[in-house]
Design a protein that fits this description.
- By secondary structure, the protein is an alpha/beta fold.
- About 40% of the residues lie in helices and about 25% in strands.
Length: about 220
């Protein structure tokens, strides 16, 4: 399988690149900062310089040529303002979907967030409100496309070692934490399970083995 990951230097993306490369998949990580090249290469993935806020759809589609799947793992990151939440968390996802359609890549995994698509709670930090708004609009755009998309909404991310045990289900799932290790493992299982297309899934720590949890999302 050839997989292209947008936001290839993100903490979840690096974990996913390492898993996929170790099992023999061909992986490319799209990054905007050349200084991140070695970090991506160390995972076994091919680093590809591509700034999603600057590139055009034709150039991006060229990077996706021959891919079996794409993963949107990009994000503006902590400390960024509302404008970059929109240009990265929403617009870059839209651009990647446009490019996937142009390149003929049907499988599309999108990392979103719990809270996406919901009105922000009273007193919510402005940056967080902008973030979940952008994620929600990116989800809405993807649902309107003829792609084999799956949206994953993790809970609060941690750097604890993965347990391999999760709760993965259609919304609403009670809010909770999930390790980045387990998110990457779930994404891997979803890539291997085409029947999970056209699902929006929320993800937190739980007591169900990942393979069983993924299987349950399309047999319920």
């Amino acid at each position: 399988m050839r997989v292209v990951i947008a936001g290839g230097h993100g903490q979840i993306a690096l974990r996913l690149e390492r898993i996929l490369s170790a099992r023999g998949d061909l992986v490319a990580g799209l990054i905007r900062d050349p200084a991140h090249t070695d970090d991506v290469a160390t995972t076994g993935a091919e680093p590809v310089i591509c700034d999603l806020e600057m590139t055009g759809v034709d150039e991006l589609a060229g990077h996706l040529a021959g891919a079996d799947a794409v993963v949107f793992a990009a994000g503006a990151g902590p400390g960024s303002g509302a404008a970059r939440k929109d240009t990265v968390d929403r617009a870059a996802s839209v651009l990647l979907a446009d490019a996937a359609e142009r390149a003929g890549v049907r499988r599309f995994l999108q990392i979103s967030s719990m809270g996406a698509g919901e009105p922000p709670r009273p007193g919510t930090d402005k940056a967080w409100a902008a973030y979940v708004k952008a994620k929600g609009e990116a989800e809405d755009d993807l649902r309107g496309r003829d792609l084999d998309w799956t949206v994953v909404r993790p809970g609060r991310l941690t750097d604890r070692p993965g347990t391999g045990l999760v709760t993965l289900a259609a919304p609403p799932v009670p809010r909770g934490e999930i390790s980045r290790d387990d998110v990457a493992a779930v994404l891997t299982a979803l890539l291997d399970t085409p029947a999970t297309r056209h699902r929006t899934l929320e993800l937190v720590g739980g007591d169900i083995p990942i393979d069983d949890a993924v299987r349950g999302t399309h047999t319920a």
